[in-house]
Design a protein that fits this description.
The chain is an alpha+beta fold. The protein has a single domain, classed as Alpha-Beta Plaits (2-Layer Sandwich), CATH 3.30.70. Helix content is about 20%, strand content about 30%. The strands form 2 sheets. Strands 2-3-1-6 form a 4-stranded antiparallel β-sheet. The chain starts with a strand and ends in a 15-residue tail after the last strand.
Length: about 90
Amino acid sequence: MKKMFVGNLPPEATEDTVRELFTQFGTVRSLSIATDVFSGKCKGFASVEMEGHEARAAIAGLDNKFMGSKNLRVRFDEPKTRGGSGGRRFR
């Protein structure tokens, strides 16, 4: 199972429209769109989870493609690693 970050979504994007885009490449296991609390509109990014080979096909097919007036950015969602800088210092 691979998680993808989908960026630069238009404000009118919904779960149904994003799911429709990705289902042409396989089964969408999970989908989460960031929405504004007050307006309910898309904040411009989402997280989509698919099987590995389907996710690779979706990235190849959808990255830099237009959805409405926006040019989509589709990437694997890399786990955040803790850097050596910042945080608390103990003496």
